[in-house]
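Annotated sample (chain length 124).
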Amino acid sequence: IAQSTEGAKKAVVIGAGFIGLEVASWLRKNKKLDVVIVGLEQVPFERQLGPEVGGALQKLAEENGVTFKLGRSIKEITGSDRVDGVVLDNGETIQADLVVMGTGVRPETRMIKGANMAKASLIF
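Output written by the structure step:
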């Protein structure tokens, strides 16, 4: 990510969870980029921490110059040789020199489907 910020002025971070807010904070503090976070939820961390804590974290990020576009998704990432922006599901276009996806992961569990975990010997 650090290498990709060379010459960048504006970033879009997709995802309003832990990774998204951490990346946005780092881009603002260390690279002085204008940062917009786009997230499906109405409040950052809504599912993990609830609307009150999420709202407080959003306010803190906004006080540090981060902009939010919540309740939105990305329809398209634009650009030819390099990214130059994103188009949201409502048609709004946001200019960006850098797009970072912090959308989380979904564990791959098909390999253990049907396994008898009671007999499994697990080491942690």
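Annotation: The longest helix spans residues 46-63.
Annotation: Strands lie at 10-14, 34-39, 66-70, 74-79, 83-88, 93-95, 98-101.
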